[in-house]
## 1
Amino acid sequence: MITTVIKIDGMSCAHCVHSVEEALGELAGVDSVSVDLEAGEATVVHEDSVELGVMTEAIEEIGYDVI
């Protein structure tokens, strides 16, 4: 398993956190997701096969920007 930290812009509330956790958690190969609203980042534990681009796309599809 690999741990990746993704910086996210545009999150402002608990609903945002839930949306990002759900979007990333639904990806095949993702083991766990933890979103820190204050830091503006998601920590994702995943298999090697899950590419950063796929995670970025999942976040951007729900309206947030990866920085």
## 2
Amino acid sequence: MNRAAHDDENYGTGMKVWLDQQEVQQLLDAAEDTEQRIAFGLGARCGLRSQEWLDVEPRHVTDTSMGTVLQVPAGKGDKYRETPITTELATAIRTVGDIEGDDTTPVIRSASSTRVLRKWMARARDRLADEHEKPEWRDVSPHDLRRTWATQLRAAGCDPLVVLNWGGWEDLETFLDHYQGTHTPEMQKRERQKADWL
């Protein structure tokens, strides 16, 4: 887990957090039910903002020439975008629609606001902090999942302009300044191995 102090006074003394893939999986596993697991997955696996989690409907999962994507019809500023989605998450969302017999109803039904989503996150992160004796978990917020997603894509070698497009950021400077985090431990290890004297 990488952390840094917020450089924005609106966040007070909070921390920005970037999880590694193992920690993302731990968080998904800490969800209390399928609905929460889908919600956390929308942040960690699709890069959605927490407000966007509440708007996802099964019909937004679609197959395109680039693969299966999640359509975000009205993201920040009511802007449309498409972002890749994992097979597991796409299947879970489509299954909700199949069970309900309705693909136009939001899959996150128990949360009426982002405040509820933050409570879900708080319960999951508190369990993880206690279980792993790692108090840093208590700093994790829903927005950190979006931050993690972007950094993990960059660490995997994805073009930053493509990540910018998938995430719906206005400009590269905003993305680089606020979302791309410190390099993942895996990326640092890979780069270190390039210097045989280290």
## 3
Amino acid sequence: MTYNRGMISALIITAATAIVLGGFFISWKKTADQKVSSNPILSLGEMENQGVPLFEGETITGEPFRLNDYRDKVVLINFWASWCAPCIDEFPSMLRLIDEFPKDVLLVAVSRDRTRQDIDSFLKAFPKISGANIKIIWDQSGDIAKSYGVDRLPESFLTKKDLKLSRKIIGTIPWHTPDSVEFIKSLAQ
């Protein structure tokens, strides 16, 4: 059997098309599977029933930190960055709320900044950001944000004393309001 140039070209084009389409469908399937497995609704349900993802490491001052050590407190986990204008806007209100509850509420401010200098510059604008009930964590690798499904800033997770999720807030809110204070009081009891 002899093949002419047209037949050989058609076979090559068909094979190349099959390879390209096969690769496309394999890639698409992997992407679709990843989207389903990181479904934030499922993650939120798990956080409400089983608790938020626990993490450990160091604060920016070098103090060891384990989220699991704060099961006796209401915890506000806030993901922020110095380049995020809404993060900057909400921080003073958040700090005033935390000041209302020095023994019952812990703020874990998780920075998504690229450099330590950016964090330090941001913190200079907020001298009240020190204290036993405020921990600043630098999520340099992004692993903490990923475990919480954070994809925009600011995002905040408010837990009950058992570290089970009570509320997730995407974007900014006025943190220090009479309603917020009453809500935190109810969680702290």
